[in-house]
Amino acid sequence: MNLAHTTHLLYLHGFRSSPRSTKAQQMAHLARQVPGLTWWCPALPPSPKAAAELILEGTRDWPALTSVVMGSSLGGYYATWLAAQRHWRAVVINPATQPGRDLSGYIGQHTCWHDPDQSFDFTQDHVKELADLASPVQRFGSQVMPLIAKGDELLDWREMVARYPDSPGVLCEGGDHAFSDFETYMPDILAFLGLARPGLEAQTVKSS
To answer: In 3D, which of 10, 37, 1, 30 has the Cα closest to residue 200?
Structure first.
């Protein structure tokens, strides 16, 4: 891929999250500064099957060689699946590696993190759908850049590291599941995705 000419950027949020998340908003701000860059951060449905269909349909006409994807937590699992499908470069932030196992304890009704007035049901069928999105690729190498915090309070950092052997990434001492110091690594992220531009500035954003 010619990283100097990345034209399309997809961001996939995590479980209970939304396009209003801090990281998504930071990336949206940066995307607006890149002339001609197509940016998309869809609101993903709770059904993994429906989410996959939305992602595939929404990116169906995106160019194979100049599109990239980012994902956080469950969105990182989706991004890994898509990277295997499309051979895109991907940045995954504290990515879920065993979501069927980890989310099986969350079956029931949940509120949306950024809009508590909205709720959704997460079902046993949804857990089963996650297995269908497991990527058969075992070693992504330089195609994927994982950002992993040892202090993640929800996911085991060792499993995340083991999922992406040989991939260039960041392993942070401490930190948290939200990867709150995400902005610190923005230059490396933009360089990896082929989006680095002179004068491109990150913005401190607080999730609402």
So the answer is: 30
